[in-house]
Amino acid sequence: MTYHPKSEFLRVMTERGYLADCTDLQGLDDALMAGVVPTYIGYDATAKSLHVGHLLNIMMLRWLQKTGHKPITLMGGGTTKVGDPSFRADERPLLTPEQIGENIAGMKQVFAKYLTYGDGDTDALMLNNAEWLDDLNYLDFLRDIGRHFSVNRMLSFESVKSRLDREQSLSFLEFNYMILQAYDYLELNRRYGCRLQMGGSDQWGNIVNGIDLTRRVLDHEIYGLTSPLLSTSDGRKMGKSAGGAVWLNADMLSPYEFWQFWRNTTDADVGRFLKLYTELPLEECERLGALEGSEINAAKIRLAGEVTTLCHGAEAAAAAEATAREVFEKGGVGDDLPTLSLSRAEIGDGLSIVQLIVRAGLAGSGKEAKRLIAENGARLDDAPLSDAGLMIDATALSEPIKLSAGKKRHALVRLEG
């Protein structure tokens, strides 16, 4: 029998497609009905910006706040020093405390757009687990916390097993990660009354560990909820594009390129993405997602506009749409197009068109750029580009040139100064 949640938050999670698993759906539902439930998601500071792969969980925190509960964004200032081994083939590169600090500063910019921080009951909290992890005494920690963990059980978790089955080394440093994440939940419960941890379904083992530890040490009833790991209908990992990660910070990816990523959503994903990444009513998401033929393009533009407005503001979204219209409909050069600026020294005696396509972010490698040209997918100033050996020198760049990959991805190349 399907459980029908009473709380508004769990109704939203269920109806819009955010819910993969929950440790105790009815218990959590009752807790949400009884009062404000402080809820956390952890983010390790491995880059200067979050990317589209994080956006699903950020939207979950946003809905949590909108439905009357308290989001906690936990920065992994401590755990980033170890690195999460979950489903990874190799150990993460270790970052210095300075790099971690810079990354946290960059990530904070994104959260402020989606959540309201402050001192009120449902205002969001920004915390850093270095607060309690940095000063741990190793022997005390082993005795007080380590004794609650069974190595046999830890080895049985899919995230660890998949690494060992492939006979890839798992360092003792990384093996400690799940103990530290479990300890985060215990400390958040003890210090801030946190009663729910959310994360992607790859975090299930880590979340369950935290619940077990908190029950054993504090005897408190707490919960875990995971979201599905999303891939696009054509099998690609959500958040990756030909140019790499789709960053949420404007200084790492322009609002126009961000808008364009959503505009290029495949037809089959439009309805699902409208439910997950916008706040449009469900009926409207379903209506737009059901459009066919050329009409679905209007739904994609709506999706791109709504998501970009949340991330970069209404003005940036409107500018991106105007640029796209200028580029697609009139064949012009929009002001907002991604731009590669080259100095005369960089150009020297000339750069190959293949190098320019890669440097402009329209292909991931020279091989990919050559294939694009061979398959008639590349254009130079809106004219088909067939010569992979073409050289571009400073004279050719006396005016900016426009490069295109397919019909939807464009970039300008110009000479500095």
Quick structural overview:
The chain is α/β, with parallel strands linked by helices and 417 residues long. It has helices at residues 8-16, 25-34, 52-66, 97-114, 130-133, 138-144, 151-156, 158-165, 172-175, 177-192, 204-218, 255-263, 270-277, 282-289, 296-312, 314-330, 344-347, 353-359, 366-374; strands at residues 21-22, 38-43, 70-75, 125-128, 196-200, 223-227, 240-241, 244-245, 339-342, 351-352, 378-380, 383-384, 391-392, 401-405, 409-415. Helix 10 (177-192) crosses helix 11, helix 13 (270-277) runs parallel beside helix 15 (296-312) and helix 15 (296-312) runs antiparallel to helix 16.
- Rg, Å, rounded: 24 Å
Strand percent estimate: 5-15%
Give the overall form: globular
Q: Give the terminus-to-terminus CA distance.
A: 68 Å
Which strands sit side by side, in order, in the main sheet?
1-6-5-2-3-4
Number of strands: 15
Explain what you see.
The protein is built from 19 helices and 15 strands. The protein has helices at 8-16, 25-34, 52-66, 97-114, 130-133, 138-144, 151-156, 158-165, 172-175, 177-192, 204-218, 255-263, 270-277, 282-289, 296-312, 314-330, 344-347, 353-359, 366-374; strands at residues 21-22, 38-43, 70-75, 125-128, 196-200, 223-227, 240-241, 244-245, 339-342, 351-352, 378-380, 383-384, 391-392, 401-405, 409-415. A six-stranded mixed sheet has the order 1-6-5-2-3-4, sandwiched between helices. A five-stranded mixed sheet has the order 9-15-14-11-12. A two-stranded antiparallel sheet has the order 7-8. Strand 7 and strand 8 form a beta hairpin. Helix 12 (255-263) runs antiparallel to helix 15, helix 13 packs parallel to helix 15 (296-312) and helix 15 packs antiparallel against helix 16 (314-330).
